[in-house]
Design a protein that fits this description.
With about 170 residues, the chain is mainly alpha-helical. It is about 50% helix and about 5% strand. A two-stranded antiparallel sheet has the order 1-2. The structure holds zinc ion (ZN).
Length: about 170
C-alpha cells in the first residue's frame, strides 16, 4: 500500500517520515493562524489513526485562505526548505533516509511553487472547521506537544503517535 501526495507516490513508511519532518519544521516556523492550520491539517493525515495508505492528498485539498495565499505558500515552501536543513530532527528517534526523502520534498516544493490561487476551493476550510468539535486544537489556540513542540490535532501528537513505526 502507498499514498499519493500531489502526484508523488510514497510508501506508507515514507509518507510518515515526509509528514513528520514537515510537521516538525512547520510547527517551529508557523506564526499566523493560517500557517498553523496548514500544519495541523497535514498532521491530521496520521496513518496510525486513520489507516495505512489512506492519507494521500493534493495541495488543493488543504485549508488555504485566498487572502493570505501568497504568504502561506511562502511559509510552506520555507517549511520544506528548513525540513531539508533537518530543523527539529533531534526530536526524532531515528535518522530519516535523506536519499529517499529529499527528492520527495523537492518535488513537493516544486508543486507548491506552481500552485495558483485559482486552485483554492474556499469550501474546504469552511467545511473542515465546521466538522471540528469544540475541543479540536484548531479551535482551541493551537496547543503543542510538550515533548516535541509540534502542533497537536484531534489525534494528539503526530510524532508521539508514530514512535516505533519507522518505514524508511
Ligand atoms: Zn509528541
Amino acid at each position: 500500500m502507498a499514498n499519493i501526495i500531489e502526484d508523488i507516490p510514497m510508501s506508507n513508511g515514507l509518507t510518515s517520515v515526509f509528514l513528520e519532518v514537515l510537521i516538525l519544521s512547520g510547527s517551529m516556523l508557523a506564526r499566523t493562524m493560517e500557517e498553523k492550520r496548514l500544519i495541523v491539517w497535514l498532521a491530521e493525515r496520521d496513518q496510525s489513526r486513520v489507516g495505512l495508505g489512506t492519507v494521500g492528498f493534493d495541495l488543493c485539498d488543504m485549508p488555504w485562505n485566498s487572502e493570505t495565499f501568497e504568504e502561506d505558500k511562502a511559509f510552506l515552501l520555507q517549511a520544506v526548505s528548513r525540513a531539508k536543513e533537518r530543523l527539529g530532527w533531534k526530536q526524532l528517534g531515528y535518522s530519516p533516509n535523506e536519499a529517499i526523502l529529499f527528492p520527495c520534498l523537492d518535488r513537493f516544493a516544486e508543486r507548491i511553487s506552481r500552485m495558483d490561487a485559482a486552485e483554492i476551493r474556499l469550501e474546504i476550510v469552511r467545511e473542515w472547521l465546521t466538522e471540528a468539535d469544540a475541543f479540536d486544537p484548531v479551535l482551541c489556540g493551537f496547543p503543542t506537544c510538550p515533548e516535541h513542540h509540534t502542533l497537536l490535532t484531534i489525534f494528539g501528537c503526530y510524532i508521539c503517535n508514530n514512535e516505533g513505526g519507522r518505514g524508511i
